[in-house]
Amino acid sequence: MKCPYRTYILILPLMALFCTACNLKITKVKSQDISCLFDKSCRVTVHDTSSAIPLPASGTMFLQSRTYQGSKGSEAEGIYAYEYRIDLRDGIGITYIPCITSMRITFTPIHAGLDYDKDGSPDQIFVVTKGGMGNIAISSAEKKGDTITFTFETPVCVGGQAGKGDSTYFFGLTSPRPPSITKATLKGLQDESYEVEVRSAIP
């Protein structure tokens, strides 16, 4: 007798790829969990870029894009990983402390066939909460058409002095499409918007 439950959990992630508006499944992982999916030796060669975030504060504030491709023989062979991190640790606000609440990017298609946390069910979004830097995770990832909005568990804010601001954990997803440069839209506490360059899978 075939088990209908197993079929059901495999179909759900695929349905999210074609939905008009839906929440994507998020799982928290260790950095090694992802590295081992993309390389049998658990070592990946990453390509990092960063773009300055024009918040009304002094100091260094940036959005980091990290990409790498699954090596031959790995579970993710040929697939591209995209990871993002907002770093406001060295941002300084004196009379006003600006924060970021969400990030929106164009990203398509999503590859949903990888099991990031090894629970037997394919995942769509991962957050590296162990083995990496950061202190704030994402609470939701909402897909509308070709865009995804990542909302953070708490606002990501600059500090009152250098080194006291926030950083998100690396959060990411995968695609069979190689990276291209596009724009990400970051939202502030007062619904203000900041556009910064990001690398993504775009049509």
Outline of the structure:
11% of the residues lie in helices and 46% in strands. With 203 residues, the chain is mainly β. It has one domain.
Kindly report the average pLDDT value. Answer: 92
Number of helices: 2
Category from helices, strands and their pairing: mainly beta
How many strands in all? Answer: 12
Distance between the termini: 42 Å
Task: Report the helical percentage.
Answer: 10-25%
Shape: globular
- H/E topology pattern: HEEHEEEEEEEEEE
Count of distinct structural domains: 1
Major β-sheet strand ordering: 1-8-9-6-11-12
**Fraction in beta strands:** over 45%
Rounded to an integer, what's the Rg over CA atoms?
Answer: 17 Å
Low-pLDDT windows of residues: 1-15
Largest sheet: 6 strands, antiparallel
Structural overview:
- This protein has 203 residues and is mainly beta.
- The chain is built from two helices and twelve strands, in the order H-E-E-H-E-E-E-E-E-E-E-E-E-E.
- The strands form two sheets. It has a six-stranded antiparallel sheet, with no helix packed on it. A six-stranded mixed sheet has the order 2-7-10-5-4-3, covered by helices on one side.
- A hairpin with a 2-residue loop joins strand 8 (138-144) and strand 9.
Furnish the topology, listing elements before pairings.
Elements: H1 4-17, E1 21-23, E2 26-30, H2 31-38, E3 47-52, E4 58-69, E5 80-92, E6 99-106, E7 125-130, E8 138-144, E9 147-157, E10 170-175, E11 180-188, E12 193-200
Parallel strand pairs: 2-7
Antiparallel strand pairs: 1-8, 3-4, 4-5, 5-10, 6-9, 6-11, 7-10, 8-9, 11-12
